[in-house]
Amino acid sequence: MVIGNMLSDSGQQYVANKDDKGTWRILDTWHEDLKMLNADDDIPDDSTSVKILSEGEFIALIKTAGSLGVLENATFGTGEAELESIILDRDQEIQKLKEKILALKEKESELKRVAERSEDYEIKEKEIKSAYDLKVLAMDKIERLVSMQDLSNLSRD
To answer: How far apart are CA 52 and CA 50, in angstroms?
Structure first.
């Protein structure tokens, strides 16, 4: 029995196989070249019924087929597609939090300036109060001296 007839009876036109070096071989089981082979014959890599793909080429092919919708319900081992939207959401959340932090830092800086002005204001207010107290004390002493002078003038008369 010829290998080509045996493979064509399986119903699948293409069969894929990966070797231990990461090379993929895709065999067209309905190809005319296979009808000439015996069941024990090896199919050479240079046969027109064989397509050879590297690991990277095969992964690119599967990813592209998945993104185009050719593969229904395709899931990829790394889960990158599912995580991309989560990562994007987290990046947006981080950006919003950075903006909030910046706004809070600006507010803190403004409050510090107001607090510094308040301290200066309190110091000046204390100085003014002290000057006022000195003025009141001086006026009080002057009034006493004037009163004593008046009393002294009255007692002489």
So the answer is: 6
Q: Where are the alpha helices (DSSP H) in 11-79?
A: 55-68
Residues near 143 by Cβ (< 8 Å), separated by ≥ 6? none
Residue of 25, 27, 3 whose CA lies nearest to 13: 27
Residue from 54, 10, 1, 52 nearest 29 by CA:
10
Return the closest-CA partner of residue 28 out of 40, 10, 41: 10
Give the domain ranges of the chain.
3-68
Record the pTM: 0.41
Mean pLDDT by 10 residues, the chain (157 residues): 49 84 87 78 83 90 82 62 79 93 89 71 83 88 84 72
Could you tell me which of 23, 30, 27 has the C-alpha nearest to residue 43? 27
Answer for the pair 25, 45: CB distance below 8 angstroms, yes or no. Answer: yes
The upper half-sphere exposure of residue 43, i.e. CA atoms within 13 Å in the direction of its Cβ, equals 24
Residue 85: CB partners within 8 Å, gap ≥ 6? Answer: none
Neighbours of 29 (CB within 10 A): 18
